[in-house]
Amino acid sequence: MAKAGSGKAESLKPRLPRGLFDRREGDLLAQARMLEVIRATFGLYGFEALETPFIEYTEALGKFLPDLDRPNEGVFSFQDDDESWLSLRYDLTAPLARFVAENFDGLPKPYRSMRAGYVFRNEKPGPGRFRQFMQCDADIVGAASVAADAEICMMAADTLDRLGLAGQYAVKVNNRKVLDGLLEASGLSGDGMAGQRLAALRAIDKLDRLGFEGVRLLLGPGRRDESGDFTKGAGLAEAAIERILAYVSEDASLTGGDAPSGDVFASWEEAVGGSEIGREGVAELRTIMSLCAAAGYGHDRIRPDPSIVRGLEYYTGPVFEADLTFAIASEDGQPIRVGAVASGGRYDGLVGRFRPEPVPATGFSIGVSRLFAALQLAKSPLVDAAEEPGPVVVLVLDRENIADYQRLVARLRGAGIRAEAYLGGAGMKAQMKYADRRKAPLAIIQGSNEREAGEVQIKDLIEGARAAQSIASNAEWKAARPAQISVPEAEMVDQVRAMLERHFEDGAA
After folding, report:
1. Which of 106, 257, 287, 338 is deepest in the core (most CB within 10 A)?
2. Could you tell me which residue ranges the Aminoacyl-transfer RNA synthetases class-II family profile domain spans (predicted)?
């Protein structure tokens, strides 16, 4: 849009939408290394790669179906030309359920699937909350046995071990059936108690952050936080509060690395009382922990935890969460606990939405963006964002002979060496600065004299930078001509490869 009387178009202001981010090569390469470790670990367990599109019919996203008056609530949605609602995927599990249902007869059952990709949340962004972020999922569809849940927990532990986090995480396991049984035994069954059940589960979920007294307040009248904001409580009777607190506080060693003393599952059976669903959940947890122990996964890696709640309307059985146990320093030097970087559980109802019969399923999702940020803050070498070396840069000194420079570049590329010809309009000095900004290890220089002689100059920019630190004057610099050699064109590729091999193990920039 032009300003009045200016006759000149007004420039657009470059703005990145809130909750989104740009990423440059260093971070992309580091994340790719991390993803390769994750995919390789999933592959050891026999999981098959699958890619689903970013866009699904909104109705396929289940509980995230937007209200008619607010079609973009929770998900980014738009209408197709046939007036059907489409949405950017909210997670990677709902698209998997649609894919399995659509291809059910042609898939092996159980079906092991792994996916990685970006998901999108139309919600208010904030610290650690993005509108676009990456997840990496692994799911087993068609296995009703909790042996599948145990294997998912083992794979989560193996993945974190292979990422260099051995001894710095815990895979915590609970069961929604146990929680349902606990609430039933606490007098919270029936449709009329739905609100109190939800409030109680949310209170339990805050145990790590608020401690027992904070949970007690949220189970009762409510809690006022440090800022003065008040959260209404579940309003439970004192007997119900004591039963729930006894369950979540049973055996303090559950939050540590040592094996729990006594039979914690017997205590949980007492907590769920006569609830059939609750006792079924405890039995499933016993089996999961027994299978993990038999495979060599001790309590220091996989352990039961009564505070794990997960998806209040989503999961139907075992639920798990992988927490990093180390703290990182904030900008002001205060320790920050990283917390959960992966989570999941059994969701036996999701695929069945598309089919007449129930289809059991279990899986977990790694928050790639969150895990990557945590590894960066922990200064893990796996995600060192240091940029890899740039390409060899061929300087273009005679633009009328650009074809000659492209020929040199083609020879380097033909030998598997990253290379580019300078395509700007600047002179030699600026071209050298460009090569430096491109982190080029070498520069190829050929003026008219070199061309007539059939030679090129190869300048080792890495050695040149080192030499520059010890050369005091410009005269010394010119006399030394550090790290620069003249070679016949026919020997250029071999000389470039030899110089690269001195700097990089694989011999390629």
Report:
1. 338
2. 33-389
Q: Where are the alpha helices (DSSP H) in 114-175?
A: 146-160
What secondary structure, in 3-state letters, does 311-324 show? CCCCCCCEEEEEEE
pLDDT at 352 over 90: no
Q: What is the mean pLDDT of the chain?
A: 86
pTM of the model: 0.83
Using CA atoms, how far apart are residues 268 and 250, in angstroms rounded to an integer? 8
Closest alpha carbon to 138 in 30, 41, 28: 41
Q: What separation in angstroms does the CA of 385 have from each of 24, 321, 331?
A: 9, 27, 19
Neighbouring CB atoms inside 10 A of 57's CB total: 12
Other C-beta atoms within 10 Å of 107: how many?
15
Q: Give the C-alpha separation, 234 to 203, whole Å.
A: 8
172: which residues sit within 8 A by CB, 6+ positions away? 303, 304, 305, 307, 308, 320, 321, 322, 323
Query: H helices of 45-127, where?
Result: 93-102
Domains along the sequence of the chain with CATH: 25-383 (3.30.930.10), 392-503 (3.40.50.800)
- Residue type for 316, please? T
Q: Enter the DSSP assignment of 165.
A: I
Burial class (CB in 10 A: 0-12, 13-18, 19+), 40: exposed
In the block, tokens 């995230």 appear at 64
* Token couple for 31: 């994340």
Which of 106, 286, 272 is CA-nearest to residue 177? 272
For residues 496 and 442, the answer to whether their CB atoms sit within 8 Å is: yes
Distance CA 237, CA 345 (A): 30
Kindly report, residue by residue over 126-170, the tens digit of the pLDDT.
766 789 999 999 999 999 999 999 999 999 999 999 998 999 999
Please tell me the distance from the alpha carbon of residue 244 to that of residue 237, in angstroms, as a whole number: 11
